[in-house]
Amino acid sequence: MISATLRLDRFDRIAIGLSGLCMVHCLGTAVFFALLASASGILGQPWIHEVGLSIAMILGAVALGRGIAEHGFMMPGAVGGLGLGVMAGALSMPHDGTEALYTVVGVSVLALGHQLNRIAGN
Questions:
Q1: Domain range spanning residue 99?
Q2: Are 35 and 8 contained in the same domain?
Q3: What is the DSSP string of 35-100?
Q4: Does residue 1 have a pLDDT over 70?
Q5: pLDDT per residue as tens digits for the range 2-39
Q6: By the 8 A CB rule, do 56 and 107 touch?
Q7: 122 secondary structure, DSSP code
């Protein structure tokens, strides 16, 4: 009889623990999505995209130019410059989703230029 009571007690503790985890999950999910909605309202602003992309373009141009000065190979700079040009073009597009596509393409080509720059430096 005592062992049966202990087993039931264990199941009750497990059930209480699972209920608590469920409550934490539900409240945590609600809080997370509320914060995400607030953050997306701020991070979705066009000026955030424009400022961030401008900073990335400046840093990319400096890194590529420095690489050309150090190792003398123009190909990484040319590939990276193409990516920078696509990124600059994305800045002039309306914020309807197409600028995001062009930004991703430009950033990918710029990343390839940085990878070539890194390889040329070795």
A1: 45-122
A2: yes
A3: HHHHHHHHHTSHHHHHHHHHHHHHHHHHHHHHHHHHH--SHHHHHHHHHHHHHHHHHTS-TTTHHH
A4: no
A5: 565 556 567 677 877 777 777 787 778 778 877 877 77
A6: yes
A7: -
